[in-house]
Give the backbone structure.
Amino acid sequence: MSDQTQDLGSLDVGDALPTLQTGPISRHTIALYAAGSSDLNPIHTDIDFARNRAGLPDVIVHGMFVMGYLAKIGTEHAPAGAVRRIKTQFRTMTNVGDNLVCAGKVTDKQARDGATILTCALEATRQNDGVVVATGEIDIAVSAT
């Protein structure tokens, strides 16, 4: 077990998880995600389609791509298989060039299913304008009981 995992186990209700900042999301990164996920919807990959058919200025980031960043808050600081549940609500589009700040806060800590489980509220915010693009919740097993 890593020191970071032990740190998660010491968190209590109200404590913050380590934040994650994405850096600007590029068209190239979006295209790689599209290919890897097999989600080739042209709203994510074709600028002409996004502009002419959807009325957008550019392609948009996949919602599940954003969810992956939120999940990474839990997976980066916990052992493999520690994430028990994740749910996400997408609030607005994430655009090319957006730099997201992903944060979490412990809302519950209890023994459940043979482990100590942290339930954490999650939020992804665009750094440039402070708009929340996604919220969610994650359950992370931090230790066996």
Q: What stands out?
A: The mean pLDDT is 91. Helices lie at 3-9, 27-37, 42-45, 47-52, 63-75.
